[in-house]
Amino acid sequence: MQDYITENQKENQHLGNVTFKCADVTKLDFPAASFDLVFSNWLFMYLSDTENVQVFRKILAWLSPGGYFFLRESCYHQSGNVKRNENPTLYRTPLEYFELLKDVSSDNLGYKIIRSKNILAYIKYHANPNQLCFLTKRVENNELDNRTQYLESQYTIEHIRSMERVYGHNYCSTGGEYATRDFCTRLGLLPGQKVLDVGCGTGGSAIFMARHYGVDVHGVDLSTNMIHIAIERQGKLEPQVKKKIQFEISDILDVEYENDSYDIIYSRDCILHIENKLQLFRKLHRWLRPGGTLFFTDFCMNNSQPSQSFLNYAKTFKCNTLPTIKSHGEALRKVGFQDIETQDLHEEYIKFIETELRAFTATREAFVQDFSQKQFDDISKSWRDKIRWTGEGELTWAAFTAAKN
Q1: Which of 30, 47, 222, 236 is most buried, most CB within 10 Å of its CB?
Q2: Mean of pLDDT values over 157-184
């Protein structure tokens, strides 16, 4: 639209560092490696899938090696409530944008998703979690994150929903809401506090804390499918709860947040997947406010010589070596945490998973109808194995609390 370009020139051409151009993005072209950053706001929701793939492929070529592509779009459904005679917008899910970005990747070049999140201003002021932004990076394929690729294959939408049938709706960690309720009572949560939920999954703990304690929760997870489900469900919450939650897809080791910005950092059963735990704990210590609390649960090895069956199980979750309660405590102390408390919860863990297995077994017929007999058998065997390994002292579940003084 030339009128916009003309007005833009009036306002900004005095800066001397802007080139103005009126063009149709589907016909636009530039030489390869022309830009370090391509920025777009509310554009691709007006283009068809075919047009998006065409433009995404061109942008990949325009970017310099390691360059970034940022886009922001309306997702899921219309944001406002004004009736329109004509609406050209295509309200895609984040997963659909990820698939379009993947479609343009070749054998040696592609986009890596660095971050994707719903926009806090829209959440806070409009109770609207469906405005999303995406930051991607031009990478060689050997730079693509194997852990991210693993999560995408392991945590499919169907797999996540099947696990929620064991843990409870919105939960993908031991004890579901029962454990969350117990752990939250330890944290002294107060209305208005800021909480970072690392490995938030489908958002069960984040929603629980926002609803029952009035805290503001920033949930982060590496799984695109987990966050897709979380944001989709966030849109259906009561407004006063919806406004207190922001979800983000990112690798916690790759992102940076402001120092001293969270009162509580909370995590459930995911730190074992992160190989560089010292790097993680240094970041968490930096982000926590003085006087703040770090709380997390994790699975730990409780035996110096685990069985081969247990080691095989650990490998399926990309855990080269499981931590021990002692190694976690030492790492926390090394990066500066104080008042470190550890609690071996193996007895509680056995009670939780025995209860989960009994309830799951009782619903076998409905589960098999919705999923499959094989999935039922695999989950049942996994729970029985975990009961055995914990009872024999190979596996334990532990809680860790530490302070930044």
Answers
A1: 222
A2: 96
